[in-house]
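Dear colleague,

Thank you for sharing your sequence with our group. We've completed the structure prediction you requested, and as agreed, I am returning the results in plain text so they can be pasted directly into your records. Please verify that the sequence below matches your submission; if there's any discrepancy, let me know and we will rerun it promptly.
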Amino acid sequence: MKYFYIYFILATILFSNQKEIEDITFTDNKFLSSEELLSWIPLKKSSIFNKTFYNSRSLKLSAIQLKNLYNSNGYLNVKVNPIVKEISDKISINFIINEGNQYFINDIEFVGNRLFSSAELLKVLDVKVNDIFNPLQITKNLKSIIRNYLEVGKFYISIMDELIEENNKVSIRINISEGKTYFFGNVSVEGLENLKEKLVFRESIISLGQKYNISKIEKSQTRIFSSLLFSSVEIFPQFRNDISDTIDLVIKVKEMNDRDIKGEIGFGQTESPLGENSPPLTSIELNSTIQSGYFFNTPNKFTLKVDLGMTIDENISVTENKLFPKRNISLGYRAPWILGLRIPLNFKVFDYYVEENNDFRHRQGIESSFLYRKSENNKLLGSFIFESVNILGNSDSQKQLERKFRVIHQRHSLDNLISPKSGSFLGIYSILRGAFLGGNTHYILTDIEFKSFHSLFNSLVLGYRIKTGIINILEKTSEESITDFFYLGGSTSLRGWSNPDSLKYNENALYRGLVNLELRFPVYKNLGAELFFDAGILGDRKYDLNNSQYNWNIGYGITFNTALGPARIDFAYPFPKFKLNTSISLLYSF
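Please find the predicted structure tokens below.
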């Protein structure tokens, strides 16, 4: 018990010393406004939605960033003096700015360059006479010039810049020592245990006798790592001697675990029994993966995945008597190369089952897919799917053999995928069913989603989503054979309606439009709140999108950040009756 009192006393002392920042002001700033300066520094004054406390480290960092800001605008001799005043246990900070004179570029000269002309280097430097002198930009662009030399065989490139100041003018002299040209020599591999060297060499784009090129080294490193065979890849140059112009390379790798078993639990979104185009269901999911070792010492692997989910209704109860109304099992096979071509092949056999209330969807089939990943935030996924789909609902039931080609493109700049505060997301989802794949049902489905998030006043998050989809029927296809109609309603689309059935759209929807607008803000610690507006429309084969078919709601919600992600309670009022609809869900609506 005594330790508890010690911790309590220490915590009390620690937090009692925190003082709230009441105001931040700037004095003698003429070139830049106070609003611009305030947006540039990490220190912020307290607001209704967010309390900020004084920190001496943040104060020093703010002064440095203000100085760098002025330097980048030509004020080389600026001085920043922060004054801190404490009034009634609150802090006021005043930054006194002595801007000094603004400097401009008088002349630019390159000396010692032979491989690149002065005009070519000046284009990379991206400055010209009479521009505002920005030392930060020049330093950054000098690195680009060095990289240009590193791509054409120059390893020991040396660049020194001289600056001559006179009467608010700066003359720039850039001295370049290019050095001799180097060439790639032998390439060796270290760290292999089970795999063969050829699996590394075939990913490399480096050849004996080529000019040294830093970009080829980096691209080879990326290709080797993206083969998913290695947990780390490093490439080191080795010089034979001081006279030789040949650079040997050593590729050091660490193999991935040849066998892997892992399990995860978290919040997720599950495909609705109504299909992929219906708003997904929120769920608590248990995921397990068993990955085999290297198949006959090749990079090919088998993967067994078992995903179990408990879908949640607005009363936070399991929606069915069964413990896991979502049950997905798949056995996959992956090969990074096909017939000597660098085309990754993913092949899997799957059995997917999901049910809600009296609806269920059971899918069994095979899928062959490829994944092109330009970067971590930009990917293209394509797949051929042959599956048997068994659907049972309140109104009808059907069983079909479906042949599909699916393409998914996603790119984003979100700072966080679960709780984003800034950035945007673009997703394009398209399916071709039938046509050259055969069968009696032929259509093209396209669904596009764009969402964007903006941080306001250092605490609020404004987010919006626009989603539109359309089904184009090809040849002679009966609507009864289509299983991918659009739906609206539920906690992830129109929150004024508890589920798609409550929206009571009686036609087969071949078009869907959806707009969500949401303002999120913190309340206390992990507790937050949100204000939202949702609007959506469904249309039939005639695309009858008159005003009577629009549905919209307003509402507010309470959120709580857990270790697994945000949980929320939404209170929505649908037009025109504005009858309250309450829903409890996991994760944000979008």
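Summary note from our side: Residues 1-16, 314-321 have pLDDT under 50 and may be disordered.

Kind regards,
the structure core
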